[in-house]
Amino acid sequence: MIPAFRELADVIGLVIDATGVGIIVLGLAAAILRFAMTARRVTEPYRQLRQDVGRGILLGLEFLVAADIIRTVAVAPTLDNVLVLGGIVLIRTFLSMALEVELEGRWPWQRTGD
Questions:
Q1: Taking 80 as the threshold, does the pLDDT of residue 45 lie above it?
Q2: Measured between alpha carbons, how far is 57 from 24 in angstroms, rounded to an integer?
Q3: What pTM does this model have?
Q4: What pLDDT score was predicted for residue 75?
Q5: Got the DSSP string for 33-91?
Q6: What's the CA gap between 59 and 75, in Å, rounded?
Q7: How far is the C-alpha of 40 from the C-alpha of 92, rounded, in Å?
Q8: Which pairs count as long-range contacts for 102-108, CB under 8 Å and 24+ apart, including other chains?
Q9: What are phi and psi of 113, to 5 degrees?
Q10: Contacts 24+ apart (CB under 8 A), 66-69
């Protein structure tokens, strides 16, 4: 029973990984399409493009972190894998926060207008 669960968790992790990558790719394509269609009508088209790309990356990173957690906890919960997961989550969290600051112009814990 346990090997079947690990295989299922591994497959689920891979599906979520693929979803995360797909979201990033689709977000990039949608951002470029929006840029091409609205570049002349928008006041700051480059800024809008960067924000759209950043939002796609942020959402994709959330899926990639979830997949890493599932695979590490359910498939191979060794100390080495947990330490690697901690490093990956730390790096991806830093990237997410940096993108959030870039997109919103404020820290995630700050309220609007502070």
A1: yes
A2: 5
A3: 0.78
A4: 76
A5: HHHHHHTTTSSSHHHHHHHHHHHHHHHHHHHHHHHHHHIIIII---HHHHHHHHHHHHH
A6: 24
A7: 34
A8: 102/50, 102/54, 103/51, 103/54, 103/55, 103/58
A9: 95, -5
A10: 66/16, 66/20, 67/13, 67/14, 67/16, 67/17, 67/20, 68/13
**Which three-class secondary structure state does DSSP give residue 17?**
helix
If 0-12 CB within 10 Å is exposed, 13-18 middle and 19+ buried, where does residue 28 land? Answer: middle
pLDDT, mean of residues 12-41: 94
SS3 92: helix
Task: Kindly give, in sequence order, each residue whose CB lies less than 8 Å from that of residue 75, ignoring residues fewer than 6 positions away.
Answer: 6, 9, 10, 13
Of 35 and 39, the one with more pLDDT = 35
